[in-house]
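Section handout, structural biology tutorial.
Before the tutorial, make sure you can parse a SMILES string by hand: atoms, branches in parentheses, ring closures as digits. In the record below the ligand is zinc ion, and the chain has 252 residues. In the tutorial you will relate the predicted structure tokens back to the input. Do not try to memorize them.
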Amino acid sequence: MQTNRRTHIFRPLRRGGAALLALLVLLLPGCTPAVEEAAADLPLPESGLKYVALTFDDGPRADTTSVLLDGLRERGASATFFLIGQQIPGNEDLICRMAAEGHQVGNHTYGHTRLQNARDDTIIEQIHKTEVLLTEVLGPGEYWLRPPYGLVDKSRSDLIKTPMVYWSVDPEDWKLLNADKVTACVLDRIQPGDIVLLHDFYPTSVEAALRIIDALQGEGYAFVTVAELFNIYGTMPQAGRLYKNATQERNW
Ligand SMILES: [Zn+2]
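Predicted structure of the complex:
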């Protein structure tokens, strides 16, 4: 009787298997469906090794960013930090440490301002103010831009004098605020050549990042900066272009 009832219950499941599976995947907590184009399947670089770039937005934040830097150093992993200009004063030592320990430092505007539909002078000012602060701390350099929310008008890309960095894996860590779910989401999607979006502003994201590194280093992945990733893949980044992974620009 028991067996019959179970058979009865599972028969409709088998009939609608594909549809139900798709529904279950959509309903699984912790990993929202990708909103961007399907993940690229890039060929490995000449070395045949697997490289990815972790990127961290919205910092620096003294307590969480320092924990992340400690963890990256312990693991021999490099990363890229896109900093909010108004959070730079008071965190100069942390930023010097980023550069000294081999990480890439970039610009995330001064006030985390949405650049899409912004006035030209606002775009220029938001980028320039952070460049000035970064130059004061780290010296002259090219500080690549990650536009807040990844948004900028293509028609005004000539205002952007550096390459721009989008992403190919976004676990929406700021929404999940759960290290287990963020880790699972990234590990489920990651492929060599990916650029991963995280935020060192959140303790859960820092914890997830270190777990992701531990898991993927066990699979032979190496963690490099975005500039290093481009170099490894032979990509020559251009000013005003928005890159989503090691070789491809975002469709915008
Ligand atoms: Zn941001």
